[in-house]
Design a protein that fits this description.
Rossmann fold; Dehydroquinate synthase-like, alpha domain; six-stranded parallel beta sheet; two-stranded antiparallel ribbon; binds nicotinamide-adenine-dinucleotide; maleylacetate reductase activity; ADH_Fe/GldA; NAD; Maleylacetate reductase
Length: about 350
C-alpha cells in the first residue's frame, strides 16, 4: 500500500514572501496566524507583511520540542484572533507549534521551513508535558502547502546546516528499511539522501551558495516525505530517548548516532545499504557518514554533546524498554555497546 498525501510544494529563492500569499489564497484562507521561534521573528514578519490583510497576527514564541504551555498559549492566540489558518515559519520547532494549533483547532497549516528537519512533510506531532515528549500521528497536522525558500536558509549557520542535513539523511536511511516502506518511498529516500549529502559539502564551503541551499531543501523535502510515509526504527528511538530524557540537541544527536545505528542494522538490510551506498557513492555507508560529519566539523560523539558515562545504562534501559520496529533485534547488550561507541565517537564498524 502506498499513499500519496495531497500537499502542494513550492521551492525557489524568494518563495517565502512571493508564494505564501498565493498558497493561502488557493486554500481560501483570509486570516492567518504566523508562528515562528524568537530567532525567526524577522523572517516571519516579512511573511506576515507579504500576507497583508490576510495576516491575523504574528506569534514568535515557538520553542524546542513544543512545551505544553507554549502550545496552549498559541492555540489561545489563534482562537482570540479568529484565525482561519496558520503559517509556521522556521525549523522543526516552529512547524511543531503550527501542528499543535492544527491538531487542537482543525485550522489548515502552511509551512515555510528554514531547516532540513523534514517535519513539514509528516503527519507526526510532538508535545512536551511534565518533562516527557509525546508524539502522535494525525493527518490534520500535515501542512497543506509547503513553501521552501533557499534564501531563508542562508542564515542557518554551517554547523546547524550540516547536522540538520544529516538529520534528514537519517529519515531516508530508516525509511529504506522500514516495515511499511514501498518502492516509491525507497526511490524518494535514496534520491533525498543523494541530494542532501551532495549539497552539504558545497554549502559548508560557501554558506551563501543559493544553488547548494536549494538542493539541500530539495533533499529535506524528499527525506521528510520518506519519514512521513514510514515507521522509524532503532536510530530514531535512540535519538528520541537521548533528546527527551537527557535534553541533547535534536539534529546533533541524530548526526552522532546515525553511523552507529546503521553499522548495527547493516547486516540485516543489504538492499537498503546498497541504495544508500549508491546515494553516497560508497560501499561503507556508516563510515562515509561518520567521515562526512568529521570533514564538515560536526560533533561525532555523545560525550561532545554533554552526555556522561553514567547516563549510558539509563539511556540503554529506556531505549530497550520501548517497542519500535527494527530490522535487527537489538537486545540490552547491543544497545549498550552501540551507545558506548557513539559516546566515544569511535570509527563505526559493521558488526555481523
Ligand atoms: P529548531 O527548529 O529548534 O531550530 C534549531 C535552531 O536553529 C533554533 O535556535 C532556531 O531558531 C534556529 N534556526 C532555524 N532556522 C534558522 C535559520 N534559517 N537561520 C538561523 N537560525 C535558524 O530545530 P530543528 O532541528 O529544525 O527541529 C527540531 C525539532 O523538530 C525537534 O523538536 C524535533 O522533535 C522536531 N521534528 C519533528 C518531526 C516530525 O515529523 N514531527 C520531524 C523532524 C523534527
Amino acid at each position: 500500500m502506498h499513499e500519496s498525501p495531497a500537499v502542494r510544494v513550492v521551492l525557489g529563492p524568494g518563495a517565502s514572501v512571493a508564494a505564501t500569499p498565493g498558497e493561502a489564497e488557493r486554500l481560501g484562507l483570509r486570516r492567518l496566524l504566523v508562528v515562528s521561534g524568537p530567532r525567526g521573528a524577522g523572517t516571519a514578519r516579512a511573511v506576515a507583511d507579504a500576507l497583508g490583510d490576510a495576516c491575523a497576527g504574528l506569534h514568535p514564541e515557538a520553542r524546542m520540542h513544543v512545551p505544553a504551555e507554549v502550545a496552549d498559549r498559541a492555540v489561545a492566540v489563534a482562537r482570540r484572533t479568529r484565525a482561519d489558518g496558520c503559517v509556521a515559519v522556521g525549523g522543526g520547532s516552529a512547524v511543531g507549534l503550527g501542528k499543535m494549533i492544527a491538531l487542537r483547532t482543525g485550522l489548515p497549516l502552511i509551512a515555510v521551513p528554514s531547516t532540513y528537519s523534514g517535519s513539514e512533510m509528516t503527519p507526526v506531532w510532538g508535545l512536551t508535558e511534565h518533562g516527557a515528549k509525546r508524539t502522535g500521528r494525525d493527518p490534520s497536522v500535515r501542512p497543506r502547502s509547503v513553501v521552501y525558500d533557499p534564501e531563508l536558509t542562508l542564515s542557518l549557520p554551517v554547523a546547524l546546516s550540516v547536522t540538520s542535513g544529516i538529520n534528514a539523511v537519517a529519515h531516508a536511511a530508516e525509511a529504506l528499511y522500514a516495515p511499511d516502506t514501498t518502492p516509491l518511498t525507497s526511490l524518494t529516500a535514496e534520491e533525498g539522501a543523494r541530494a542532501m549529502t551532495a549539497a552539504l559539502p558545497d554549502l559548508a564551503a560557501d554558506p551563501r551558495d543559493l544553488d547548494a541551499r536549494g538542493r539541500a531543501l530539495y533533499g529535506a523535502w524528499l527525506c521528510g516525505t520518506a519519514l512521513g510515509a514510514t515507521t522509524m526504527g532503532l536510530h530514531h528511538k535512540l535519538c528520541h530517548v537521548l533528546g527527551g530524557t537527557f535534553g541533547l540537541p535534536h539534529a546533533e544527536t541524530h548526526t552522532v548516532v546515525l553511523p552507529y545505528a546503521l553499522a548495527f542494522n547493516a547486516p540485516a538490510v543489504p538492499a537498503a545499504m546498497t541504495a544508500l551506498g549508491r546515494a553516497l557513492g560508497t560501499d561503507d555507508v556508516p563510515y562515509a557518514l561518520w567521515d562526512l560529519a568529521g570533514r564538515l566539523g560536526a560533533p561525532r560523539s555523545l560525550a561532545a554533546l554533554g552526555l556522561t558515562e553514567a547516563d549510558l545504562p539509563v539511556a540503554a534501559r529506556e531505549a530497550t524498554g520501548r517497542a519500535y520496529p527494527n530490522p535487527r533485534a537489538a537486545g540490552p547488550d547491543d544497545v549498550r555497546e552501540l551507545l558506548r561507541a557513539a559516546y566515544a565517537g569511535d570509527r563505526p564498524h559493521v558488526r555481523p
